[in-house]
Amino acid sequence: MTKKKDIEVLRVTHLRGPNIWTYRPVIEAWLDIGALEDSPSNALPGLYERLTALLPNLLEHRCGVGERGGFLERLREGTYAGHILEHVVLELQNLAGMKTGFGKTRQVAEGSGIYKMAFRTRQEQVGRAALAAGRDLLMACIEDRPYDLAATVATLTDMVDSLCLGPSTGNIVDAATERKIPFIRLTDGNLVQLGHGARQRRIWTAETEQTSAIAEGIASDKDLTKTLLASCGVPVPEGELVTSAEAAWEAAKDIGLPVVVKPYDGNHGRGVSLNLMTQPDVEKAYHLAARKGGSKSVIVERFIAGNEHRLLVVGKRLIAAAAGEALWVTGDGTSNINALVDSQINTDPRRGTTEESPLNVICADVGAEVILELERQGMTALSVPAAGQQVLIQTNGNVAFDVTDQVHPSVAAMATLAARVVGLDIAGIDLVAADIGRPLEEQGGAVIEVNASPGLLAHLKPASGKPRNVGAAIVDHLFSVTETGRMPIVGIAGGHGSTMAARLIAWLLQIGGQKVGLTCQDGLFVNGRLLPKDGFSDWETGERLLLNKNVDAAVFESSARMILTEGLAYDKCAVGVVMSATSEEQLGEFYIDSPERLFGVLRTQVDVILPDGAAVLNAADAQVVEMADLCDGEVIFYGVDEQLAALAAHRAQGKRAVFQRADRIVLATGMDETATLPLSPLVPPEAVLAAIAAAWALDLTPDLIGAGLRTYDAHAQKQQH
């Protein structure tokens, strides 16, 4: 039967950790390109023109050429459908707002038409959808059929918006990544763990695990917040708590007009009405605030002339400041307020309905605050102002104009004081001032609110001014300069004693005083206690150790099959051990059918070693020895025979090695023998040597290692009886 010119997706796997392709999660797809194996891109008339017309940004793809336009060069010269699909899928994700760049495609066997394609994705569902859409788009271009790119991008964009981290959380995660701090997303929302085990910190957008629940409660109680601030010398407007519209007007008269009416426990400016002068306005504002706040309790306070500002405090420092502006429209004598808002305000490209837009779209006939403001001026959204007449739509709407560099030092000090008084480690301080560059007391300015979990977007993407990297400030607040959030991780691969070596390493670390997690073929353990797996995959089982705040260090045994089907459970390790370059597993289904291909799998364990970490390698296995050149950190060879060529050459270079001599184990740095230890009679020599080398790499002393070996022997003998 003649094969069709088509692309069939045979298998799709989400590799959630470091894998044979790269350090980061990817989707691996197995493709059968059928008769397209005989038709590279330069043999498909019009493909280049149709594809580049649909996706002009393919020009930015460097591909293997390494420079802008590299992929298009390959496309002109002739490349195969699997490789083209890789770039189409990456570009679709980019167009949807989920930036990715890594991809690789390899044929499994010459002339087979079967390819493995891997591409980076930040969210599995989006990646799978992009793969399906990319296949349809490419086939449409090959067959010269129309394709609705706009609809595809809209669908993928909606998925990105609903499934990926929000921009504020994403900025914090990106800042952590920049500092090499690992992260784990804990929910489908914005709850994220930075770091591993006992060294982790957790964030929920602009809240951290250091954010006090008491402080959040105080911040939500606006009346209590004002009382505490005033007691500490922070200027606040005079105000009164009321529970009826009539009481609101009485309070307004006592305080003095104009006044502000706002919810007792509101946030983000919802239900706030400003500059109220009459009884009807105050009473309507009361009902709005009660509805928005969900409570009869409403605050009436003195109106302060000036612009609203939002100051972001992280720890004890002012990080960013943004100002608001009043929104007006000018009548033309024929258009109603709705039309004027759409033509004069909403046409601003900075306005939108998603978090990506620094300014909001204004709906004059929907937004309660706008409706109330218009009513105060005797208008509705359908009113037609006279030509030249100015109509106020929103007072101090959209606090999104960066003024960080203009803040007076005394104002910054007042903002940080307000955050400390409430007890928040991250706070949004709302204040009103005519000039943020002058002290508040000089101009009658005041702090009007202190907000927990403040929005960050106004500082990340201001409508004007300099964007502020608030995520970096939050990460620096959580982790000192010397902290990475990483606990010591030992990864072991290669079979032939790896389970025994993993258990012995965990024991040595435990004897050293650490609470140790271990996942190996024997099960999942924390400090020697066996935990139930409960149906978790090997990857998920390993991740449980990274999530456990009770774990100081962890040991992972990873099989070649796990690397191929899930990836490693951790991103980097302090020590990587490879005991052999062979496997007892049957891996033919993955097209791993030669020592060279197995080498490509097991080298993953060496690829993830930190620059200040170490590879522990078996000097008796020639292929394992070759992995030494792939290590970014130190290499420690071990071997039963001290005359092994690789081991001897290593020592001649002054490097560390562990080897057996008669019934003793020698730890040597170059030609200097640092220590000798007794050989355990209960553990295979290769496993003992690998474990000792790993423990030594983690700076356990020879004396402590020796004590651990003796106690492990006693423990093993007890288990045998």
Automatic annotation (TrEMBL):
Gene3D superfamilies: ATP-grasp fold, A domain, ATP-grasp fold, B domain, Mur-like, catalytic domain. It comes from the Bacteria. Its EC number is 6.3.2.29, 6.3.2.30. The keyword Membrane does not apply. One of its GO terms (biological process) is SOS response. InterPro entries: ATP-grasp, ATP_grasp_subdomain_1, CPAse_ATP-bd, Cya_phycin_syn, Cyanophycin_syn_N, Mur-like_cat_sf. GO terms for molecular function: ATP binding; cyanophycin synthetase activity (L-arginine-adding); cyanophycin synthetase activity (L-aspartate-adding); metal ion binding; ribosomal S6-glutamic acid ligase activity. Pfam families: CPSase_L_D2, Cyanophycin_syn. Residues 226-483 form the ATP-grasp domain. SUPFAM superfamilies: Glutathione synthetase ATP-binding domain-like (SSF56059), MurD-like peptide ligases, catalytic domain (SSF53623). PANTHER family: BETA-CITRYLGLUTAMATE SYNTHASE B-RELATED, RIBOSOMAL PROTEIN S6 MODIFICATION PROTEIN. NCBIfam families: cya_phycin_syn, PRK14016.1. This is Cyanophycin synthetase. The lineage of its organism: Bacteria, Pseudomonadati, Pseudomonadota, Betaproteobacteria, Burkholderiales.
